[in-house]
Amino acid sequence: MSDLVLLLATGLGLGALYFIAASGLSLIYGLMGVLNFAHGAFMTAGAYAAWLTMGALPTAWPVAGRLLVGIAAGVCVGALVGLVVEVVLIRPLYRHHIQQVLVTVGLSLAGVAAAQGIWGADPRAVDKPVWMSGTTDVLGARLPNDRFVYVLVAGLLFAGLLALLHLTRLGLVIRAGVENRTMVEALGINVHRTFTVVFALGGAAAGLAGVLYSQYAGAVSPAQGGSLLIFAFIVVVIGGMGSLTGTAVAAVVVGLVQQLANYYAASGVGDLSVVLLLALVLLLRPTSLKGATA
Amino acid sequence: MTSPTDHLTDTHTSSGEVAVDDDDTAAPRPAGQRPQGRAHLLQRLLPVVVLAVLAYLPYVPVEVPGLLPGRVNGPGSLQLLATCLVVGGIALSYDVLFGRTGLLSFGHALFVAAGSYLLTISLSTWDLPLPLAVLAALGLSTLLALVVGAVALRVGGIAFAMVTLAFAQAASIIVMRNPGGVTGGEEGRPLDRDAVPDLLVGVVNAPYRYWLALGFVVVAWVAVTLLVRSRAGHAMAAVRENEQRAAVLGLGTYRVRLLALVAGSFLGALGGVVHALVLGGSNPHLTTSEFTLSLLVMVVLGGAGSRWGALLGGVLYTYADARLVEVSSSAVLQGLPDVVRQVLSQPLFILGVFFIVVVYFAPSGLTGLGGRLIRRSGSR
């Protein structure tokens, strides 16, 4: 019983990380049809920004305080990178989807290589607040505290994005744009500005994911973003390419399946079972993957 | 915009823009552009001449300082050139999917790695003789391509790209976990030296490995040429240009795409087999998403949908990846600040940036750019 509770909690924590990473990807894909390979580079940028900020702050501060400032820095850097990439690189290739993918591929290669050149390929240790490294007893299971943080952050992000999509004018434009972009343009709304905002939002979410993932892994490394990105892709595909709620559900399912398979089958089977899950979804419901509602 | 059909046509027309047809695709050319007489003959002869020059290289005892490590026929240079040629051939096989059929696959590395690993595993773990091992590697890889393709092709466009990436990643995870000790994990699996002919082993025999690589490129070239000229090749081009139209005309587009994927993967697996023989083992780098992405980069750099483009892209990319490290330690960069030098010392950074520039300013790749320049100077 305690094993199961532990697995569920860690799976949920992992799913929360996947959701944070995939939410930006899903928003961007849903509205703009851009498969953003550079999302991993955004995550890496956020993680390094937080790591540098935490290193630059006086060590007399409590680690949690430095982490909060680091998260803020990571989110800002992620948003900024997203903004610049959209304006400079993506916008001129409007409607050329393959070329947009190619540009983000080039960006992801160059970004990882740049990080590797400056900070080296080896992982660098990240400070973790004492409370987050500890555990809490729930139903006889000792649950790691950091998973609660990830779940809480993911929940807040999900609620915030839903509120943004359904309660604000910007959200209305985004939802309308996902539904029928040409019509929104015809009504005189500047969709391009919305694109920029969505990309910056996605970048911010990626930065957040990068910081939290570096906490999860206990270190920052250039290739980190890429490995998280693969799972984010899988989550986005299973969740229905652009649907935020679908993404959330898929993230939780993927996280749980991975943890349970890793424990009950064999270590390493979890990652494979996720791909099998993807294949299964494709075989059973291929049409659900093409529809997109924000 | 994001309705399924919109999305598909969008993807395919834009990939059509990337593609440059050479003389043998289905698209009819305006009469004025068809190369005639001597120019036509020259175009036919060029591959033969290039092949003859390349085949003669192991007899050239000249030093090319800066470009190659040591003499042209030295083992270091030949090994580098052989690797470039193998990867060029693999890029040629990827172009069957991307440039010819418009399939943006991120899983091609899976089949290359399958060819490579199945060869080394069947040689050492299963103790098969070399011919049987090659057959087993090719057969099983093709079967894998059939299964993966059948599943992944149920979705199109960008979703297909994501799904193939996921499959390739699963293979990468399996290889890294080293199940039962057959893949060797991060170390890779060395080739069983006793199981291959002596001609392919050892530093002295670098020329033979070079010729083997060259032979693979010739096979891939001929296979792609025949495929593109066949009915199936024309169907592939039709699917690339406008899938809905092809479907309306009565083509089974699913079957055409599956055929392209399996044919490309077969050639890719053959490339993996040769790669293992030339490099003396299977390297887990072949399974990484980085390798799969670099295949895409090669094809686009050289020019998608053109044999010269894919081949040159693959050769140049591999060459640059291996040699750019030397540039970073050169005197030119010494005056720059440390951070800039560190970043520039990463070949992938330079290649990534160069790739973005090419996507923007030379969407038909380097060969397309070259062709345009030649045509312009010819019309003057």
From TrEMBL, chain A:
Pfam families xref list: BPD_transp_2 (PF02653)
This protein's UniProt keywords: Amino-acid transport, Cell membrane, Membrane, Transmembrane, Transmembrane helix, Transport
UniProt signal peptide: none
Domain of life, source organism: Bacteria
Keyword Transferase: no
Transmembrane spans: 6-29, 41-61, 67-89, 101-121, 148-174, 195-216, 228-256, 263-284
Protein localization: Cell membrane
Record bears the keyword Cell membrane: yes
Location (main, coarse): membrane
Membrane topology: Multi-pass membrane protein
Stored PANTHER family: ABC TRANSPORTER ATP-BINDING PROTEIN, BRANCHED-CHAIN AMINO ACID TRANSPORT SYSTEM PERMEASE PROTEIN LIVH
Family the entry assigns: Belongs to the binding-protein-dependent transport system permease family. LivHM subfamily.
Official protein name in the record: Branched-chain amino acid ABC transporter permease
Species for this entry: Terrabacter tumescens
UniProtKB/TrEMBL annotation, chain B:
Source superkingdom: Bacteria
Membrane topology of this protein: Multi-pass membrane protein
PANTHER family: ABC TRANSPORTER ATP-BINDING PROTEIN, HIGH-AFFINITY BRANCHED-CHAIN AMINO ACID TRANSPORT SYSTEM PERMEASE
Designated name of the protein: Branched-chain amino acid ABC transporter permease
Stretches with biased composition (Polar residues): 1-16
Region (Disordered): 1-36
Keyword Transmembrane helix belongs to the record: yes
Bilayer-spanning residue ranges: 41-59, 79-97, 109-126, 132-153, 158-176, 208-228, 258-279, 291-319, 339-362
Keyword line: Cell membrane, Membrane, Transmembrane, Transmembrane helix
Localization (cell): Cell membrane
